[in-house]
Amino acid sequence: MTRLEDLKARYLLLSLAVVVLDQWSKWLVEARLADHMPFVVVPGFLNLIYVKNTGVAFGMFAAHGNRWGWLILALLGIAALALVSFVFWRTPTEDRLLLTALALIMGGAVGNLIDRVANQAVTDFIDAYFRSYHWHTFNVADSAITIGICLMAVDMLFGRKQPAEAPSASSN
């Protein structure tokens, strides 16, 4: 294994950790919680609730009985995963923040893709809310993707320093 592959493999371990934590948490929720019955974790702030999401993030583009909707979403997920993977392998090892972001996104994408292919829907269960306002129910994979996107934004805005201009040749 080359040094580059060794360094990138460490980031792939982060992706694997996201997939394992995501799938384990979804299994636990499916085994322990009844559909749509909230389990209060922090009153007024956080519930666990088992729901199946046939759409993408935040329930957008839900299949609603469309027999092939899950397949279209799975193919789009595979295409997005391929693009992120391509960028990951092209990113220099010095760009640690970007590699971390991409690894989180890949792990989250794989976690949700496993659900979509196996169950034609994604298991969501984290219900964050304040008073009567509930955020869309989400899962560990969604969290990893969101954190990865935020880290990418930070990297784009603050991560790269422009090289200083070379001093111009001036005559004395």
Overview of the molecule:
There is one protein chain. This protein is an alpha+beta fold and 172 residues long. It has one domain. It is built from four helices and four strands, in the order αββααββα. It has helices at 3-32, 69-90, 96-119, 140-159; strands spanning 39-42, 46-53, 122-130, 133-134. A four-stranded antiparallel sheet has the order 1-2-3-4. The model has no long low-confidence stretch (mean pLDDT 87).
Summary keywords:
single chain, 172 residues, alpha+beta, 4-stranded antiparallel sheet
Helices and strands, with pairings:
Blueprint: H1 3-32, E1 39-42, E2 46-53, H2 69-90, H3 96-119, E3 122-130, E4 133-134, H4 140-159
Antiparallel strand pairs: 1-2, 2-3, 3-4
List the uncertain runs: none
Kindly report how far apart the N and C termini lie. 53 Å
Strand order of the largest sheet: 1-2-3-4
Shape annotation: globular
Topology order in helix (H) and strand (E) letters: HEEHHEEH
Major sheet summary line: 4 strands, antiparallel
Averaging pLDDT over every residue, what do you get? 87
> What structural class do the secondary elements suggest?
alpha+beta
Radius of gyration: 20 Å
Strand fraction equals: 5-15%
Tell me the number of structural domains.
1
Helices, by number, come to: 4
The count of DSSP E runs of length 2 or more, i.e. the number of strands, is: 4
What's the helical proportion of residues?
A: 55-70%
